[in-house]
From TrEMBL:
It comes from Agrilus planipennis. InterPro entries: G_HFLX_dom, GTP-bd, GTPase_HflX, GTPase_HflX_N, GTPase_HflX_N_sf, P-loop_NTPase. Keywords: GTP-binding, Magnesium, Metal-binding, Nucleotide-binding. It comes from the Eukaryota. This is GTP-binding protein 6. GTP binds at residues 260-267, 286-290, 308-311, 380-383, 398-400. CDD domains: HflX. Pfam families: GTP-bdg_N (PF13167), MMR_HSR1 (PF01926). The keyword Metal-binding applies. PANTHER family: GTP-BINDING PROTEIN 6-RELATED, GTP-BINDING PROTEIN HFLX. PROSITE patterns: G_HFLX.
């Protein structure tokens, strides 16, 4: 598609052919150079912090590390009635998501799975005596080496009680998501964020025995000081991100942030729109943890930067989300936001609600209201559904087959032009004059064609910002 766009951009009749080609390639290189945020070397990396915190290393190895693969029995306890009952998803669908989380930790395996209806999740044993006995018998007679309770977080006393009942380690979503993030974190930034997310997990899981055995004040101090160091390093990175954002703004590159629930196809869609061969979509939850930039061309040859982001997931503690706020900041400052939904998923409404609610919480009500009209909703994976709902405002596409991408690009272009105060104009100018040189320097020249009524003139179709157009009018006053 990109090749098609390039050749379209070169379809002009005479004049500065090689100039346009050169300019497009030059700008594109500038865009590609911005692909990833630069990370300065003076920022503390996690391994430096770890070396200094040997005590932390010992502590953390007790809670994390996937060297040992577990064969998990998954239990999804759910509230069967009352205000806490989930209405946009079913327990079976949530169980399926829990299974995907475990499968993402390959070679971990799933021994068995069950949904258990309850009236409350606050009991020390979670389950009533009947359910508890049934589960105990099932798990103890199975080959399970761990139990994954599909709940956001468990209290330490609940973990201790269930471990004594089932005879295997007990994990919650917080623990499983951190393990996945540890595996997928590649950049310094992502590693720092995951390291920060580990601290509240560990703090809340220290047992009475732990506290009695060692000097609790010293441990508290060690965790606190590590937290401070990590926060300082992340803050430094955020400042760098801000500088990159401002530089991008000053270069006038519009950006399109691609957000959505994990595994909905954000990376695949960016790959299809930008034709960036380096991108690697994967059938895993939290495959993308770093914000990356990918240059693409809209149908009018306007250059944009697609921003890939970390996916959302429901039922994880806010401390875990907070660590990834920095990676989302760029998304929220983008010219346009593409919200990708997996329309083949039965949990689509639940996922949509979760994404929108989280964004609203991050931004606050008034800023969110402002952003709402910048959001374009895309229904990805339409190749997997037989009948597509005619839902207003939703553009069905398939990143896999390319279906719907042309329409999406058109909608995207209109939105980018509007939000970035640009215009698509055809201007009558003297052939070969100062005007065309000025336009090449200050705008995107899409085509040049001979004026049919006057061979002394040409019609240049350009994309130009409002401010530059005013400048042009002031300087030349010879336009149409
Ligand atoms: N059938 C089909 N599969 C798709 C489509 N788009 C993406 N996929 C598949 O969905 C899976 C997830 O794709 P990604 O692009 O990695 O999804 P993501 O939203 O970036 O995921 P995270 O980074 O983990 O949040 C991969 O196996 C893709 O091949 C599509 O349009 N149709
Ligand atoms: Mg991704």
């Amino acid at each position: 598609m990109l090749r098609a766009l390039f050749s379209k951009s070169q379809r002009f009749k005479r004049g500065s052919g090689s100039y346009l080609k050169w300019r497009t390639i030059f700008s594109f290189t500038k865009l590609q150079q911005q692909k990833q945020f630069p990370e300065s070397n003076d920022i503390l990396c996690t391994s430096e912090i770890d070396d200094k915190d040997r005590e932390y290393q010992e502590l953390s190895s007790r809670f994390f590390g996937v060297e040992k693969a577990y064969n998990c029995y998954i239990i999804h306890p759910y509230i069967k009635w009352g205000p806490k009952k989930q209405i946009l998803t079913t327990p079976e669908d949530q169980l399926e998501e829990a299974e995907s989380l475990i499968r993402t930790l390959d070679p971990w395996t799933v021994e068995g799975k069950v949904v258990v209806p309850l009236t409350s999740l606050d009991k020390k044993t979670i389950f009533g005596s009947g359910n508890l006995e049934k589960l105990r018998n099932t798990i103890r007679s199975s080959k399970a080496t761990a139990v994954f309770m599909n709940m956001s977080t468990l209290k330490i006393m609940q973990i201790e009680e269930l471990e004594s009942q089932f005879g295997v380690p007990i994990f919650d979503r917080y623990k499983i998501v951190i393990e996945i993030l540890r595996l997928h974190a590649i950049s310094k930034h992502a590693k720092l964020q995951v390291a920060l997310a580990e601290i509240p997990y560990i703090t809340n899981r220290l047992t009475q025995k732990d506290i009695a055995c060692s000097n609790p004040e010293k441990r508290k101090l060690m965790l606190h000081s590590r937290e401070q160091k990590l926060k300082a390093a992340i803050k430094k990175l955020r400042t760098q991100h801000e500088m990159t954002r401002n530089r991008r703004k000053s270069l006038e590159f519009p950006s399109v942030a691609v957000v959505g629930y994990t595994n909905c196809g954000k990376t695949s869609l960016i790959k299809a729109l930008s034709n960036d061969k380096d991108l690697q979509p994967r059938n895993q939850l939290f495959a993308t943890l770093d914000v990356t930039m990918h240059a693409g061309l809209l149908p009018s040859t306007l250059e944009v930067l697609y921003v890939d982001t970390v996916g959302f997931i429901s039922d994880i503690p806010t401390t875990l989300i907070e660590c990834f706020i920095a990676t989302l900041e760029d998304a929220l400052f983008a010219t346009v936001i593409l919200h990708v939904e997996d329309i083949s998923s039965k949990k689509r409404k639940h996922q949509r609600n979760h994404v929108l609610q989280t964004l609203e919480n991050l931004l606050g009500k008034s800023l969110w209201k402002d952003k709402l009209n910048k959001i374009i909703t895309v229904g990805n994976k339409c190749d997997l559904v037989e009948e597509i709902d005619n839902e207003s405002g939703l553009i069905p596409v398939s990143a896999k087959t390319g279906q719907g991408l042309d329409k999406l690009l058109k909608v995207l272009e209109d939105a980018v032009l509007k939000e970035s105060n640009r215009r698509l104009l055809t201007i009558k100018i003297p052939f070969g004059g100062e005007e065309i040189r000025w336009l090449y320097k200050n705008a995107t020249v899409k085509t040049e064609e001979e004026n049919p009524d006057d061979s002394q003139y040409e019609n240049a179709t350009v994309i130009i910002s409002e401010a530059k157009y005013h400048q042009f009018q002031k300087q030349f006053c010879n336009h149409r």
